[in-house]
Amino acid sequence: MVEKDENTPKPAEVNPDEFAGLTDDERRKRGRAPDPMLPGESAPKAKPPLEVHAAFVLAIVGAVIVVVGQVVTFAFKQQLVDAMMKQPQKPGHPLTLEEAQSTANFFVWSLLIGAVCFASLLVLFAWKAREGTRSARSIATLLAVLGIVFELGVTRSIFALAASLALVVMLILLYLPKVADYFPKVGKTL
């Protein structure tokens, strides 16, 4: 026979209707497991505060601006080739026009593919943050900071400034004190 310790928590009296209609994150905030879903049922939808919804919209706007800015760089690819050809050449290894065009082509395509991947991840995690997931807000924050650093550190164009402004406002909206309760801190129990 196992003897019960007085420090052992006792099961709480729970009214099943008390947790009906709550989202998974709201249930976790109250220390409950996510509600099991039967086939054909739909999960309850989160009702985000206006600030969180506006942050999601700004994440989309910032992502679109980043991608459009990289598409516009295709128009200036020849200027990049001309700038590379004007650079002082290494003795014994002059840069040919074909090498400069190949390098510019690789650079422009790499930036475009990177921008599309960044935009996709940012919108995905901003969507999950819109649903109230605290960890998604943290990842969206990390992506936004990396995007701001990259846009202002590397590209420096009107598109970079506009995207950075949208991402900064998105971050401010996600961390306002009045939306802190929307992102519950899930306690860990062992």
Largest sheet: none
Mean pLDDT: 82
Separation of the first and last Cα atoms: 24 Å
The SSE order reads HHHHHH
Number of strands: 0
Give an overview of the whole structure.
- The chain starts with 23 loop residues before the first helix and ends in a 16-residue tail after the last helix.
- It contains 6 helices and no strands.
- It has 190 residues and is mainly alpha-helical.
- It has a domain at 57-87 and 95-179.
Give a brief rundown of this model:
Keywords: Membrane, Transmembrane, Transmembrane helix. Helix 4 packs antiparallel against helix 5.
Structure keywords:
mainly alpha, transmembrane, 190 residues, elongated, transmembrane helix
What is the strand and helix layout of this fold?
Blueprint: H1 24-29, H2 50-72, H3 77-86, H4 97-130, H5 134-155, H6 158-174
Helix pairs in contact: 2-4, 2-6, 3-4, 4-5, 5-6
